[in-house]
## 1
Amino acid sequence: MEGFSDNVFGFALTLLVISLEVPRTFNDLLETIRGSIAFAFVFILLFIFWQEHYKFFRRYGLENNTVLWLNAALLFVILFFVYPLKFLFYYLVKAFSGMARTVTMSNGSIVPAIENYQWTSLMTIYGLAFVTIYAIFALLYLHAYKKRNDLELNGIETLMTQSSIVGCCANCSIGLLSIAFVTFGGFQYAAISGLTYMLIGPAQTTIGFFFRKKVNLIQETPTVSE
């Protein structure tokens, strides 16, 4: 299951590559460099998803039917997520680097890469995929928590599992908040919708601090020998 999953993650990264051709002009080279910047951002995000996946299987080693189907759903959403990610970050890199945000169609006409009103749909698609990915991770950790007796998890390992569940649910909440901004505020709130994801860092730090205190309390509690 892990081998197949790693292949899917590798395939997802392959989908991000636009072209392997050598740039023929300096402008082509600049375009490739700007594309590499966008690729780096998307790569980091996919790496975070892979790391969460890797951590789960290394911690618990569960390979039953529940994990099989949840893992399949996760991989499906990640593959679906690649193109919205690619489009969004490549567009943002072009916007911040001062490049034209237009596309030349096959008939020679030049059109905007995205219309203002379409930002609502784009951020909603992005948010739904993000929420779904972390909802599946939450379900995977919840399944492991229910199996804690079979897995013989100790107190610290159980707390780590609970921390992962809460952390995934927090990310889901942030994603839903982002969707709410563009759903009720319209495309004018697209920037705020994107900036909402910056709450992930403080939220995860707070959750980590809270559960770390509990772990430290267990470690400092003396074991009573019979």
## 2
Amino acid sequence: MRVELVTVPYRYDERGEGLGAGPEALIAAGLPHAIAGAGHELGGSHEATLAPADREEGRTAVNIGRLGAQTAHLIAAARRSGAAALVLSGDDTAAIGVVSGLQQAHGAGAPIGVVWLDAHGDFNTPETSFSGILAGMPVAIIAGLAGPLWREAAGLAAPVPTERILLAGVRELDEKEEALIRSTEVRIVRGAELCDGTTLADALDRLGRRCGLFYLHVDLDILDPRFVPSASTPSANGPSIDELVRAMATILATGKVAALCISSLNPGAGARGQRSVASAMALLKGALPAWTAAPDLAAEPASETVG
């Protein structure tokens, strides 16, 4: 399988250090060799950028959306060429651009499923969020529950219906966020269920009957903090690297994953950052061999009937 590497080295709309340095750190740590070692052909490496002329002072969400439009262009080009897309992003806000790119390649009405591996739900809106942090909102933005200017700037033509969204590995939800999720058809696989051998597989089977292709998003803070000690939003009682490899392999082995995004790696902070980079590389080396196929542009769901 051919893989196009897409990097989004930003934290919100500013390129810089911390999480924004994560993509480059993975490449420097040998990710291209790991892709080849997993049996894939690396088609190329492409960076989404936000030109100064496209940035507006004080309009962070719009700026992120415009960066997302550049990301979408790269994702769409990869898919139209027949390649899968491996995305390295500074934080979770890059996801809107990835989904936009899949829609551009497969069609606005394409049956895209979102599989979101994260310790947090990232399903907040400005009305439910305690912090107002935009990186805690991407899944709600993708679902069309907030951020119309953000979606428009990113070129996201249609929200993803909530019955096509799976949140897995979740351990922390804000009170209002959880209430919002419960008002939708989003499926949650809790952190304790992620590695029980059946819950994730059952949820994927259900999602796969609705969707012809998946976007798999992995926020590295899903791992237990001992593996990612430089995480900006650590969450206790997470899976080990081996446990997360098995979960990712289960998803990748469906043959439906068109794009995989690895997000929120902070390579700074000395030894803690080095430990986090090593964990991310171990995760990718363990999981990528399971990604043996990606859906073609005509991907359709196996069945629209879900029991």
